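Consider the following assembly input.
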Amino acid sequence: MSSWIVTNLWLIPALPFAASLVILSLSNVRRKSAAALAVIGQLLALAFSILAFLPTLQTHGFRVVQNFNWFTFGEQTLRLGFILDPLAAAMLMMIALVGLCIFVFSVGYMAEDRNFVRFFAYLSFFSGAMLGLVIANSLVLLFIFWELVGLASYLLIGFWIERPSAAAAAKKAFVTTRIGDMGFFLGMLWLYNRSGTLLFYDGGNGCLESAGLAMLGASPAVAGFIALLIFCGAAGKSGQFPLHVWLPDAMEGPTPVSALIHAATMVAAGVFLVARVYPLFSLGAINGVTPSLTVVVWIGVTTALMAALIAVAQADIKRILAYSTVSQLGLMMVSLGVGGVAAGIMHLLAHGFFKALLFLGSGSVIHGCHGEHDIRKMGGLRRPMPVTFVTYAIGMMALSGVPFFFSGGWTKEEILHATAHWPRSHATYYLMLAGVVLTALYMTRQIIYVFFGNSRSASERVHESPRVMTTPLIVLAICAIFFSVLLTPAWPWLHTYLTGESAQFELVRLIQPMFFVSLVLVGAGIGFGIWMYRNAGAPERNRPAEIDPLEYAQPALFRFLANKMWIDELYNRTVVAFSWMAAHLSDWMDRYFWDGLVRGFGAIGQLFAIFTTSVDERGINAGVDETTAGARSLGRVMSTAHSGQIQTYLGVVAIGMLALLLLYAWLA
Amino acid sequence: MTPTLQIFLIVSGALFSIGLLAALSRRHAIFILIGIEMMLAAANLNFIAFWRFGPQHQPPTGVMIAIFSIAIAAAEAAVGLAMVIAVYRHYHTTNVDQLDQLRG
């Protein structure tokens, strides 16, 4: 049974795709069947994912590939394939499970939407593409699913297309990620040029195996450039600086979409990609350091810190979470860059659960507050929304990295551990520590604003969300807690599963310096947050209620952060302005220069046509007319001789004969 | 008076002229046909005459030509009469002056 799914991995993405197609063909009123189809498709995908997951547990370093020919051109054969290894299996499990929770949540959240059916078609489509992405064994196949995922993201961000801001956000996301994908594509072409194959694993001949790496290893600089080009794609998808600008705007989409695509799964695809082609990055590493990995680390550090800082000053509940996502993705990139691949992926998986939980929690809050996004207008929600509050608090503590009980704590510890041992620089380690404090701070601020204090809501009828929405929250909260069982240093099962070793239980490893370091940092972050925001939303001394405490203390800094460090404005003044000018220049060129040229040629043609017309009319036509008139009048004259009288003709013949006879006689 | 070639040729020339005159001047189609038959008879007479007074006049060479010619003339007369009947049925006249559909 289990080996059957291993050889038929394509079924896993095919099921949600099929569900999506069927849902698209449904009419707009078949809401129940659409939701049922989507959930059943996702449930089956989850079941198959579990089936595929089981055999990977049995042997360490399990890896099965299924390659097939796509098409042949000349002597080249393009081969695609599917792969099942611990990385793919773990991702499959996370995506299918989180996806299922979010599908169920959406049934409640989108209940009143007009385009309910279309929404589920898109969600299923996305799920299929994402599941396909993680099991692709060829960079081409991965790229295809990568772009399908991007398309799904575009469709879902712009789901409420009647809002201009949603349409603009969808466009921004698409264009920004496309910039990264351009690099990805170039890297892919270069890789093909160098190694002659884009299959990852192919019985020793794949581009990530010894033969392919040996071919690339001939020139490590080229390998580094290829890796960096591929990283461009990863940076675009995973919202890394400087391509992070689309991700916060993507929160214009419905909240389940933000949870599924822009927090838990799709944005992690960049991290996953780097992990997948990690041998390219680490090729020719000295002491675990290569130039390309160093770039990854610094981009990651910049992103993580910058996004965490911006998150402190945002007011939109979803935007805070979006910047937090950007920041966490930066953290994962750092982890990959310093060599902690397993730690990065573990954080990715844990993050998938708790960030989906947080986003769904925020969705529940928004639903309960009738569409209110501004945390300054909430407050005191812990009483009307107890389930949301408890699950949200669990998610918040997991994200902040509270040690011991919450999954995020262990993975963050691992990442810090890996960063501390990076030989290149210690600055990253200290910057990461600052990031941990900031994460705890902004999450504390958010939770105080939303759930504590007095209600500042304009609408008094705040209500807890229906069962269909709270159940996924509870499931995800349980996941976020129990996932940590697999992550503890005492029994690092997931770590060894990903690296292909066997886990041993050793309680002593639980107590290590990093544990206390993160305990102190998280405590500091949360403590500072509580002290800082203890009276948030209420007036205090000279501070009016609607002013943020940080804004009161440091107005300039707050403005800088609240405006997202003016990066959007910078892009507007440079990149956007440049392309706007280029577009206008092209438009002008087209309108006046090229158009004038074409019109000029047209005028010449017209003149020539007028000339030939007159020649034709006056010369040739007149000549032909004259000739025909002459022929006609001649014919009229001649036709009078044709009396129709046979005897006349016969007489003429007789006279002719007689004349010939006389001529003959005369000549003789 | 011994018959000579000249006499025969004069007779045949006269016959041909009479036939031609008939074919050109009569208005009735039947008479035109009769004129044509007379011209054919003149031609036949020429054949026989030239054969009889030619260098080799073994029978039946010249006579054979004449007999063939008469047979063809009979066939031609049959066709001609049939045409006359067809024309009469169509135009209700055999007066060739009124048959001027070939006028240009």
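Residues 52 and 62 of chain B are 8 Å apart (CA to CA). Ask yourself how this observation constrains the way the partners meet.
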